[in-house]
Amino acid sequence: MLKVGVLGAGHLGKIHLRLLNQSEKYDLIGFYDSDAINGKKVSEEFGYRYFENINSLIDAVDVVDIVTPTLSHFDCAKRSMEKGKHVFIEKPITNTLEEAEALLALEEKYHVKGQVGHVERFNPAFAAVKNKIKNPMFIESHRLAEFNPRGTDVPVVLDLMIHDIDAILSVVDSDVAQINASGVSVISNSPDIANARIEFENGCVANLTASRISLKNMRKSRFFQKDAYISVDFLEKKVEVVKMKDAPEKTGDFDMILQNAEGIKKQIYFENPDIATNNAILDELETFAEAITTNTQPVVTLKQGTKALKVALQIIASF
């Protein structure tokens, strides 16, 4: 088992602590929180060991799980990597692109592994259809959330939209050619609603909308590709796969047939992939442990996290 320590014991940090404590791949040594009052309270309530010094915790573990506010991600990761520790970093990887690129250099210098917490990669609905998404040419994503004060220290692009940016970059095998976006601040000092149009060099276009002041929650993405339409509901963990194939010469009464202007007939059919029940946060943490012990590439590398951050910052810059 890998010895692991958690930096940050806020809402998400406490979830990580609970899951790491029950994991068979990790030995939870303890945690550090810059707020000593909160740290001692969490320790008394749940029984996890609280370290009053961040360096003492880092020294005691093999893996550092960074669940602190984004502004401190770089400092926490840098301290850990310089001590030869593997790092799991909640999204976004860092606050700036320069910081992210510096972590890439540290990862190589100290021969450690890093993974970014883009948890939607482990959403069972997305996992069920990811291999079916091949060369999509139009993508539409909506990530709407009711207002929550947590996360409003950063623009909605870094708070919410970055989930969809990462998911899209993982299925579009092309560089970004152009970005157009708009954002509106309603209740926060940074944009609460944003829309972005990402054009890729291969011709694919992705239209993303994110809001953290909606009246209802929604997390849906739709992928359109040749002969297929794939819808992923990240919130309800449901998928819809609609495909087309050449129509048979003899069709049944209940076959769905479309005919275009040239007389070509296509048959529509549906696929229902199995969706496994899982805990996405536990899965991302445990696959990182597997990558370390087997010396393989993590599912979401620091390089991929940096790429998602770069696109997110380009979107913000184009407001």
From TrEMBL:
One of its GO terms (molecular function) is nucleotide binding. Residues 2-118 form the Gfo/Idh/MocA-like oxidoreductase N-terminal domain. Gene3D superfamilies: Dihydrodipicolinate Reductase, domain 2, NAD(P)-binding Rossmann-like Domain. Residues 156-216 form the GFO/IDH/MocA-like oxidoreductase domain. This is Predicted dehydrogenase.
